[in-house]
Amino acid sequence: MAITATPVEFTDFASGARGDDLLHPIESAVDSSGAGNEAQKNLDLLRRTLHAMPGHFAILDARGAGAPIVFVNVALARDYGFEAAELIGHPFFALFAPTDDGPEKIDRIRQELSAGREARAEFQAVRRDGSTFTAGMVFAPVKNERGLTTHFGCSARDITAIIEEQRDKRALQEQLYAEMSERERIAIELRLAQKLESVGRLAAGIAHEINTPIQYVGDSAHFLKSAVADLQQLTEVYRGAVDALFRGESPEIVRANLTQIEAFVDKQFIDVEIPQAFARTLEGVERVTSIVRAMKEFAHPDGQEQTPADINHAIETTLLVARNEYKYHACVETELGELPAVVCNVNELNQVFLNLIINAAHAIESAGRDASSGRIRIHTSAVEESVEIVIADNGCGIPRENLDRIFDPFFTTKEIGKGTGQGLAIARSIIVEKHAGMITVDSEVGTGTKMTLRLPSAGRKSSSGK
Questions:
Q1: How far apart, in whole angstroms, are the C-alpha atoms of residue 456 and residue 437?
Q2: 21-25: long-range pairs with CB below 8 Å, 24+
Q3: Closest Cα to residue 271, out of 215, 240, 230, 238?
Q4: Chain CA centroid to CA 209, Å
Q5: Dihedral Cα 46, 52, 55, 58, nearest 10 deg
Q6: Higher pLDDT, 213 or 300
Q7: Is the pLDDT of residue 311 over 90?
Q8: How far apart are CA 308 and CA 98, in angstroms?
Q9: Which ranges of 247-300 would DSSP assign to H, the alpha helix?
Q10: Contact assessment for residue 347 and residue 300, using Cβ atoms and an 8 Å cutoff
Q11: What are the angstrom distances between the C-alpha of 124 and each of 62, 136, 306?
Q12: Digit-coded pLDDT (tens) for 134-174
C-alpha cells in the first residue's frame, strides 16, 4: 500500500494547524508571562508518552470522509508497516480489509460517538505487506469548547493471539463436551450390557423357577384329565343304574354294582384329589405369573425420568428374579421397614439390588456355606429425608487392600467367567451420580460384607436447586 501525505507534526496539530483546538486547555496556558515554555514542555512530554506506549493510539478527524488520521503513535504505524508521518491525512478505515458488515460497523461507531458514547469494534487490519491481523479498538469522542465532536480518539491493540486463544478454548471446550457425551454414551451402553449380561445369566435360573410350577400345572392337568374320564364313566354307570331301577331290577343288585364300579375307579380318591389338583394348578399359574411380572418389571427398558417408586417392592421383585442365584447358597432374611415413595429411576435401582444380592451369594458360596448356614440380610428404613438399604452377608469378606478398589471399573477378584468387574462400578455410578445418594462398604475377611445405600426421598435435585 503506497500512501502519499503531507507530514504533520504533533506540535502543529496541538497548536491548531490540524487539531482544531483539541489541546486548547494546554495551548491557553501559553501567555505573555513566559508560561509558554512550560506548556511546550507538557506538549512534548505528551507526544513522547504517546509514542512510547506499546498500544496503538490515533486521533481521527470526525469531519472528514473515512476519518482522516491526524495523529498516530509509533506503535500503530510500525505494526501496520509504515512510518508515522506516512499515515497523516490517510483515511483511518482504509487501513482495514473490506467486509460485508464493514459499512454498517463504521456507521454504528459514528452514531455512538456522535451521541457522546464510546464505541468498541474489531477490524481485520491490513499491513503494508498485505498480511493481516485482528485489531480490537475503543473509540472516544473529542469535543471542542462549543461541545461539538470534532475528532475521535482511538486506542487499539493486536488481539489476534487472544482471538486464536479463545478459538482454541472453544475448540477444546467443544472437544471436551464431545468426549463427555461419548463417555456418557459408553456408560449407558455399559450399563445396558451389564444388565443384559445379568438377565442372560439369570435366564437359566428363571427357566428353572418357572419349570417347577409348570410341572405342578402339568401334573395336575394330567390327573384332572384322567379323573374327568373316570367321572364320565361313572356318569354312564349311574344312568344305566337309573334305567335298571325303572325296569324293575332289585335295588340291592343295582347298589352292589355301583359300589363295585366306584371302588374300581377309586371315587373316594378322586373326590379328595380333584380340589387339590385345582389348587396346585392355580398356585402354579400364580407363581409363573408373579415370576413373569417380576422379570418384566426388572427388565423394563430404562426411562430417563425419575418418578416416585416403592423401594421395598423393587427389592422383592429383584429377589424373585434372582432366587435361583442364591437359593442354593443362602437363606434371605428381609426386614423391610415402612418407607416413603422415593423419586428415582427404579429400573436402575433394580440393577443395583441385583448386583449386590448376586455378589453376596457368590461371597457366601466362596466361603463354603450353603442354604442352611448362608445368610443374606436385607434391611430398609427411613432416615430423616432419605431411605437406607442395607444388604449384608456372612460370606468370605473383602481383603482390606481391595476395599479402595472395589468400585473401580473392571476390577474383580472373581474367577474368569463369573464377573466382569462392572457391577459395583455401575452400582456406584447409579447411586451417587444418578441419584445423588451414597454407597458405603464395611467388610471383614471371613465374617462377611455389609453394603449400605442412602437415597434422598425427594430424588436428585436439579442444578437450579428446585
A1: 6
A2: 21/144, 21/145, 21/150, 22/59, 22/142, 22/144, 22/150, 22/151, 24/144, 24/145
A3: 230
A4: 37
A5: 40
A6: 213
A7: yes
A8: 61
A9: 251-265, 267-298
A10: yes
A11: 21, 9, 51
A12: 999 999 999 888 888 889 999 999 998 888 888 888 888 88
Residue length, the chain?
466
Nearest in space to 18 (alpha carbons), one of 26, 6, 28: 6
Pairing of strands 386-393, 448-456: antiparallel
Please report how the helices 267-298 and 251-265 are oriented relative to each other, as an axis angle in degrees rounded to 10. 40
CB 326 within 8 A of CB 376: yes
Read off the amino acid at residue 297: E
Q: In this model, does residue 186 exceed pLDDT 70?
A: yes
Please tell me whether residue 104 adopts helix, strand or coil conformation.
helix
Burial zone of 374 (CB within 10 Å; 0-12 exposed, 13-18 middle, 19+ buried): buried
Cell numbers that stand for 80 in this block: 501496520
The pTM of the full predicted model, rounded to 2 decimals, is 0.48
CB distance 123 to 137 below 8 Å: yes
- Provide φ and ψ at 30, rounded to 5°: -80, 115
Question: Burial of 251 by CB count in 10 Å (0-12 exposed, 13-18 middle, 19+ buried)?
Answer: exposed
Alpha carbons 101 and 328: distance in angstroms, whole number: 78
- Grid cell of 219 as nine digits: 401334573
Which positions ≥6 away from 458 have C-beta within 8 Å? 343, 385
